[in-house]
Amino acid sequence: MSTQANKQSALKKITRGLTVGSVITGSTFLHGPPVLALGLTKLFKKSRKVDQTNIQITNSWLNVNNWLIDHVLPHLEWDISIDEQLDLSMQGRYLMTCNHQSWVDTTVNQYFGLTRMPLTRFFTKWELIFIPFVGQAFKILGFPMMKRHTKAQIEKNPELKTRDMIEARKACEQLLSQPFTLLNYLEGTRFTQEKHDQQASPYQHLLKPKAGGLALALNILGDKIDALVDMTIVYPDGSPGYGDFWLGDVSKIAVNLRKIDIPDWVLGGNYEDDEEYRKRFQAWVDQLWLEKDQLIGQMKAKYAVSSS
Q1: Strands across the sheet with 180-184, in order?
Q2: How many angstroms separate the Cα of 168 from the Cα of each of 214, 280, 282?
Q3: Is residue 57 part of a domain?
Q4: Is the full-model pTM beyond 0.85?
Q5: Structural domain boundaries enclosing 200
Q6: In what residue span(s) does the Phospholipid/glycerol acyltransferase domain sit (predicted)?
Q7: How far apart are the C-alpha atoms of 260 and 227, rounded to whole Å?
Q8: CB 3.0–4.6 Å: which of 173, 187, 232, 240 could bond 244 by disulfide?
Q9: Kind and range of the H or E element at 60?
């Protein structure tokens, strides 16, 4: 590529970055204050109408982001595959699992789900509550916010474990008043080869799954959901950073959604206190993860062949 072409490419990237940054910042300052203001009213009175309005405002914010993806990242190609057994609806109630590689994963989920599924919430750290706008919005919109304690902290104060379970149960139950998609990144952290090696993960493309959060959600919501959905995301060009995505350095994203059948024995079990149930549940999740690992391998092989 010539020097002139390099300069033009760099200029386009700078222009794209400034456009995306300006629009997202402006959109956040436009949509954020109404969500926070309406959220404050819930301190005095619970209101389904307020919740619905906040979701509409949030979806408007997401719609701006999706518009940027469609119009500012014109060379991005999507390959989306949906299980025929999966009948998605904006009025549905879904639990969703997903592999986790990048901050872009959440943007992919939002892009896919905006017109197909209810607003996606996910388990997040309580510490995010202190991030201006973002943390408060998570709380107001009903994201289950978890205080993570180490084994040493729980051993020193066993009450912490019970308190966390109560808070998590309350957050999940609050979702039942409306359609929802509750996302759980079972790996608990973003995939890197270093983490994979440290874990000695038995999977080629995944970290070991942490089943406790899914077990809790199924215990509380299992008989009230329409489907357990597994989303698999593959970046044929390699896992991108958030900046890489918005600067247009990602050419293709592949998404696969499949419906997971929930065995009858899963519902109503006690993951925390029943060791036999816990082992059986973990084995079930391990099998789902093995199938997912094989699926990722097939997807990557497909794109490797198509690009050769």
Answers
A1: 77-82, 252-260, 227-234, 93-98, 180-184, 120-122
A2: 12, 22, 20
A3: yes
A4: yes
A5: 76-118+179-307
A6: 94-236
A7: 7
A8: 240
A9: helix 48-72
